[in-house]
Amino acid sequence: MITETNDLIRCFGSGDKDYEEYHDHEWGHEVRGDGPMLERMVLEGFQSGLSWSTILRKRENFRAAFAGFDPDAVAAFGEDDVDRLMADAGIVRNRRKIEAAITNAAATVALRERGGSLSDLVWSHAPAPRSAPPASWEDVPAATDESKALAKELKAEGFVFVGPTTMYALMQAVGMVDDHIAGCVARKD
After folding, report:
1. Which CATH architecture has domain 32-173?
2. Which of the following is catalytic: 19, 20, 39, 44?
């Protein structure tokens, strides 16, 4: 649903300063680099089953708790770190998601050690641009052939908690697709 705030039309996020900032200046903007990509992947995983505004409110806490999403640092986390994170009320305390973040950091490091890059792997699945922007949220898919292929390749590389729907959300967040609704202030076209 398109809403108006501050004389701007936004496809989501209106009425909440932090959410508006995220909508206008981050969601759908290009993200490159393994650390920033790992952060987005981890946060999309934590968001699963929750509202994005919950994750957005806790984002700085996540960054502090997960060593700024430095893949090497997070990959080195052990059981004491899992216990520490499970006790941290500033983040979402879900053992499976915490362990997935550590596993995915280790997979990122392993990929780099084999000469690859998480960022490059993700971007290799970028779809062709749409011929027209979505007219409404009903026109935005939950998953695509590209997000399914990305999820499959990531799983083969040792990543977890990377299903096709979560990977499509990642593709949106890092600017691989522009799913801002037609007329939205943040559309690039």
Report:
1. Orthogonal Bundle (1.10)
2. 44
Residues in CB range of 43: below 8 A, 6 or more apart: 55, 59, 62
Q: Which of 19, 20, 22, 39 is catalytic?
A: 22
Residue 8 or 115, more confident: 115
Q: Yes or no: say if 163 and 146 are a contact pair by the CB < 8 Å rule.
A: no
Catalytic option among 19, 27, 39, 52: 52
Residue 8's pLDDT is 62
Average pLDDT over residues 171-185: 95
Residue 8's beta-bridge partner residues?
5
Question: Would residue 44 show up in a list of annotated catalytic residues for this protein?
Answer: yes
Burial degree of 70 (CB within 10 A; 0-12, 13-18, 19+): middle
pLDDT at site 1: 45
- Residue 4 among the catalytic residues: no
- Return d(Cα 165, Cα 179) in angstroms, integer: 14
Instruction: Write the CB contacts of 114 (distance below 8 Å, at least 6 apart in sequence).
Output: none
99 annotated active-site:
no
Q: Rounded mean pLDDT of 74-98?
A: 98
Could you give the CA distance from residue 109 to residue 70 in angstroms, rounded to a whole number?
10
